[in-house]
Specification:
Layout: E1 4-6, E2 16-17, E3 33-42, H1 45-57, E4 63-67, E5 73-86, E6 89-99, H2 100-116
């Protein structure tokens, strides 16, 4: 399936609120949404970024699929992506569009998750 990127192991992604910079240009929509960014470890970041570009060139949506803290599978549209190569491995940055309700759950739960984490585990896709 090329219409989604799925997190296959690890904790739910941590979403960071976006307040300034170029991602705000992606905000325009007839409904209220919130932009957020997440950083994920991956084995082949450039291939995932290319998958996003292929979908966008066809004017299609690509989703980030993940299991949230509530145990349910959630999907949210990816609006931008970037791959980075670090000494520890590859990382993909995904900017996603959350509804206001999702933003309250995901961005508000970030503080609670940080308190409960005993080590630095990154989700892997």
């Amino acid at each position: 399936m090329d219409d989604k990127i799925t997190i296959i192991e690890g904790p739910p992604p941590n979403f960071e609120d976006i307040h300034e910079g170029w991602p705000l240009g992606l905000y325009e929509s007839p409904t209220l949404h919130k932009l957020a960014m997440t950083r994920l470890r991956t084995f082949n970041g450039p291939a995932l970024v290319e998958r996003c570009y292929r979908a966008w060139r066809k004017h299609q949506t690509i989703q980030l699929e993940f299991r949230a803290a509530d145990g349910l599978i959630h999907k949210t549209p990816i609006v931008a992506s970037r791959s980075l190569k670090l000494d520890e491995g590859q990382l993909i940055l995904l900017w996603v569009r959350l509804t206001e309700q999702e933003a309250l759950l995901e961005l508000g739960a970030e503080d609670d998750q940080a308190d409960n984490e005993d080590d630095d585990q990154d989700p892997t896709i």
